[in-house]
Design a protein that fits this description.
Oligomer: heterodimer
Shape of chain A: globular
Largest interface: A-B, 36 and 28 residues
Radius of gyration of chain A: 17 Å
Radius of gyration of chain B: 42 Å
Amino acid sequence: MEHFLAGSERRALRMAELATGNREEALDIVQDAMLALARRYGGRDTAEWGPLFHRILQHRIRDWYRRSRVRHRWLAWLATDDDSDEDPLAAVPDPQARRPEDHVGQERAGEAIESALRQLPQRQQQAFLLRAWEGLDVAATAAAMGCSEGSVKTHYSRAVHTLRALLGDHWP
Amino acid sequence: MNDEKETRLLRAVRDELDRRAADLDDLTLARLRAARRRALEARPRRVWLLAGGIAAGALAAGLAAFLLLTPPAAPPAPGLEQMDLLSAADLDLYKDLEFYHWLADHSDAS
């Protein structure tokens, strides 16, 4: 178990950080996921730990999104007294995200990638990171995200399309 | 964008993700190690589970052997409370049964 966690924790942290835009929140999420895996599934076959860990992690990230959305709704309601049903979170700019265009002419393509990944909608970001970075297949990604395989394909395809649009200038 | 360009783009994204995961600062790495340690301490202890399982198995085996090897005990004599429950009518019935037996035996003989 220690070997597995040691080999997964950095990537898990980066995934949570990309999703939340906040390292402290990401550390909490990863710690919760590790605890849940060890407590509930420590006795399972080691081959099951990877998919189970990602499933727990993605659930924790989704919970964080829900709580964050509620928090932002309250803040928006208190601030504007607006009855609009529009999700205020969508309008809140990510303080750590900068548009890739801002980096044109700079040599720091890495920051452009980071920024582009942060701009992906949550489900697209999850599907992309699990498929392209963690190397999970469609079925395992669907299990981790708690959705159908068709949804995974759609989210992944849209994520790649968005990344192409945002980063195409850096990799012509 | 053709497949080759897309492959190059995806590889660049993966490389960047790997690079950032490898370049985490010392404080963050220490906190990850601490979180990992807490998770490992929280997992159910296999040694205790194994010892508990062996103890429970031995107890069950001993109990089964005791039940199999011990001859069944005679039914306990009725206690005073049970005696009280026997009414006079019941005693009369027992006496009557003796009588009926006696009567049957003697009827056959005659």
